[in-house]
Amino acid sequence: MSSIVTAPTLRAAGNRALSVVLTLLGLLLLTFVIGRVMPLDPVLSIVGPDADKSTYDQVFRQLGLDRPMPVQFGYYLRDLLHGDLGKAMLTGHRVTDDLARVLPATIELATMAILLGTCVGIPLGVYAATRKGRLADHVVRVISLFGYSTPVFWFGMMGLLVFYAWLDWAGGAGRVDLAFDGVVPTRTGLLLVDSAMAGDWEVFRSALKFLILPACILGLHSMAYISRMTRSFMLAQLSQEYITTARVKGLSERGVVWGHAFRNILVQLLTIIALAYGGLLEGAVLIETVFAWPGFGQYLTSSLLLGDMNAVMGCVLVVGVIFITLNLLSDALYRVFDPRTR
């Protein structure tokens, strides 16, 4: 009996693992090919335009660019299996070390943003759905449309102008005041967590002051998306017959909305929030540039402009792993919140 029960589960797990590997492999192959046909010359980025031909040829061979493209990709996969992503031309350090340094900054920023976006977006979406066609619904829809369609970099510049330059309520560029840079030991890379663990609340307050403005701007963008989707899902549920039945039975409006309708959209919202979070992790390029935030997005942008394919490939791999992990996590949460999927 146990073998009958576990065999489909093992097959499903094997198929899922194979699809994950093939997805990452295809993503790496596509990025590798694009990187090799780009007009940027990584050799010139290293030696400079004034280098002689012998120096150019020497670096060209050191980078392995004299080999056929399939051979280059094969060597890259071999090194990848040993945990080696190569060296970054941008910093001269191993790509794995660079990613370990910049990822926590983006994770801290994106996590704060998605928490703000979720905590505000879901109630707004539910509120708008329960007042469909009224003034409150129109106001929420206009706010969502404005937050979703307005460029993030414009919000960033206006935020710096108002809340930093004029009011001095928020920090400026960077993650923390220069006086506190490097004061607390790096344990997790998350500055709020590290300063709290060290008990240094001055650094904590400074880090929070610098974090809150970019996080609110990113959170506004995700809040607009989450509130729009929440409203749409709730409208679909509130028009169902079981909602009418619950109201006829005398259930309170709060119980109907949150106890019945919202519970039935929770599974859908998990996917929306997971995708929004993944988008924040890999798409916070503009806001990190505006605020000089030393994170993943700024590192990827600088690597692309330099033609540093080792760093770009490492970033692409991280993005792929992030989205695959979030999708797997969403599937697992489905089984927790929706017994029909077990």
From TrEMBL:
MF (Gene Ontology): dipeptide transmembrane transporter activity
One family name in Pfam for this protein: BPD_transp_1_N
Superkingdom as given in the UniProt entry: Bacteria
UniProt cross-references to InterPro entries, sorted A to Z: BPD_transp_1_N, MetI-like, MetI-like_sf
CC terms in the record's Gene Ontology section: plasma membrane
Keyword Transmembrane appears in the UniProt entry: yes
Keyword Transmembrane carried by entry: yes
Family annotation (PROSITE patterns): ABC_TM1 (PS50928)
Domain ABC transmembrane type-1: 103-334
Membrane topology: Multi-pass membrane protein
Location(s) in or outside the cell: Cell membrane
Keywords tagged on the record: Cell membrane, Membrane, Transmembrane, Transmembrane helix, Transport
Transmembrane region(s): 109-130, 142-167, 207-226, 269-291, 311-334
Family classification: Belongs to the binding-protein-dependent transport system permease family.
Protein name (database record): ABC transporter permease
Source organism (scientific name): Rhodoferax koreensis
